[in-house]
Amino acid sequence: MSNKKPKTIFEKIWDKHVVKHADGYPDAVFIDRHFIHEVTSPQAFDGLRKRGIKVFNTQRTTATADHNVPTKDQHLPIKEALSRHQVETLRNNCSEFGVELYDLGHPFQGIVHIIGPELGLTLPGMTIVCGDSHTSTHGAFGNIAFGIGTSEVEQVLATQCILQYKPKTMKIEITGKVGKGVVSKDIILYIISKISASGATGFFVEYAGEAIKSLSMEARMTICNMSIEMGARGGLIAPDEITFNYIKGRKFAPQGDAFDKAVIEWKALATDEGATYDQILSFNGADITPMITYGTNPGMGMKVTDRIPTAEELKEISEQTSFKKSLEYMGLEQGSLLLGKSIDYVFIGSCTNARIEDLRAVASMVKGKQKAANVEVWVVPGSKQVQEQAKKEGLDKIFEAAGFELRDPGCSACLGMNEDKIPAGKYCISTSNRNFEGRQGPKSRTFLASPLSAAAAAITGKVTDVRELI
Question: Model-level pTM?
Answer without folding.
Answer: 0.97
